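Task 17 of the worksheet. Students: predict the tertiary structure of the chain below and write it out as structure tokens. Keep your answer in the requested format; marks are given for formatting as well as content.
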Amino acid sequence: MFTVGLDVHARSVVMRAIDGATGEVIHTRLCPDHGDIRRWLATLADPVAVHGRPSAVLMAPADLESLEETIAILSDREAMQRLNASEAELTAGLGESEADLAAAMERRRRASMT
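Model answer:
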């Protein structure tokens, strides 16, 4: 298991990893790009540890935002009830077809032009 330390600055990130089994120290200096950091971490043979416990997660900001939005929806009881009700309606065949929706939108568009 590796213990990793990052010294993050605006123009560079200095990273060191200590192999818990051998005591070997591995280090590198990279630009502060999450892709470069992820690739470097992936070169380590074992899991990354913090205080001796596996615990490193590194992801792109867009993936983090998506995860946070998913958690927010899953944590919102009313939103989940609405989603479940919608799913039940679709399962029961109560949903609208794409053709029905397109026709309704066309009627709405024509009505707004008069």
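Marker's comment: The chain has two domains: 2-54, 61-113. Helices lie at 34-42, 61-75, 77-91, 98-113.
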